[in-house]
Amino acid sequence: MDLILWRHAEAEEGSPDHLRALTSRGEDQAQRVAKWLSQSLSDHNYRLIVSPAKRTQSTAKALNHTIETNRLLAVGSHAEDIIRAAQWPHSPLPVVIVGHQPTLGQVASLLLSGKKDNWSIKKGAIWWLTYRERNHHPQVVLRAVLNPDMV
Fold it and tell me: How many folded domains does the chain comprise?
């Protein structure tokens, strides 16, 4: 299974928090990363699961793919909620999650190290994880980390 954790792009300051829009820089970040993701996922059907916050919805729209809004991904969610929403590690399709810090960093930490820590994921960045079994042993592989300024 492939799981892509995508932190929302740069957003304006303000409140209420769930209504914060992307900045013009954030819109550019979302477009650049979405272009790379579209090319990387072009041979696959996939699920795009997104927090209900405006900034995550706007980030995800750059992919031009069907969006599944899930409240389990909202600001303040728990890593375990995201893992459950993604059906990790048994989803038949790759899953792209668009969400928030610190939860996405906690998901990455938990899946890669077995321990939930507050790992930092930059705004607009993706972490691509793959679950596989080798010699009957489960493994989680970090396939890619991509920051918006790299594309």
Answer: 1
3-state secondary structure of 86: coil
Backbone angles phi, psi at 112, to 5 degrees: -85, -35
Q: What number is the average pLDDT over the span 140-144?
A: 97
Q: What is the pLDDT of residues 80-109, one digit of tens each?
A: 999 999 999 999 999 999 999 999 999 999
Given a contact cutoff of 8 angstroms between Cβ atoms, the answer to whether 146 and 126 are in contact is: yes
The Cα-based distances of 55 to 20, 39, 72, 89, 132 in angstroms read: 6, 23, 16, 27, 32
CATH number at residue 91: 3.40.50.1240
Q: Which residue range forms the structural domain that includes residue 131?
A: 2-150
- How long, in residues, is the chain? 151
